[in-house]
Design a protein that fits this description.
This protein is mainly beta. It is built from no helices and eleven strands. Strands 2, 4, 5, 6, 9, 10 and 11 form a seven-stranded mixed β-sheet that branches. The chain is globular and about 40 Å long. The chain starts with a strand and ends with a strand.
Length: 114
């Protein structure tokens, strides 16, 4: 299993970023997938999740209404569209899937300037 995140970078508060996770080495469409984030000195937290098939989604209260998770099973990608960014959204964002074990990407850094 390999997960590769991309799309992080620097955004201004109120701005937007689009994160992408490319999955390989497993049956992508079969598995629920999640985005987590970890800010310095804080525990990793669940940001959003999407079911296999994409018909069910979950969002942490802190991002609800601002972030949108989606998936393209044909392209084996999952995205997180982040809007109305806040300084507290700054973190390393990780893609996650459980395929016989916990599988994580290396993460992509999101920085938000106030």
């Amino acid at each position: 299993v390999q997960l590769v995140e991309s799309g992080g970078g620097l955004a201004r508060a109120g701005g937007s970023l689009l994160l992408t996770c490319e999955g390989s080495g497993y049956s992508f469409r079969t598995y629920m997938m999640r985005w987590y984030r970890q800010a310095p000195g804080k525990e990793r937290e669940l940001v959003a999740g999407i079911s296999s098939g994409g018909d069910a989604t979950y969002y942490a209260d802190s991002v609800k209404g601002r972030f949108r998770i989606s998936r393209d099973d044909d392209r084996k990608t999952m995205t997180l569209r982040m809007t109305s960014l806040k300084p507290e959204d700054a973190a390393v964002y990780y893609c996650y899937v459980s395929v016989r074990r916990d599988c994580w990407g290396r993460g992509t850094q999101v920085t938000v300037s106030s």
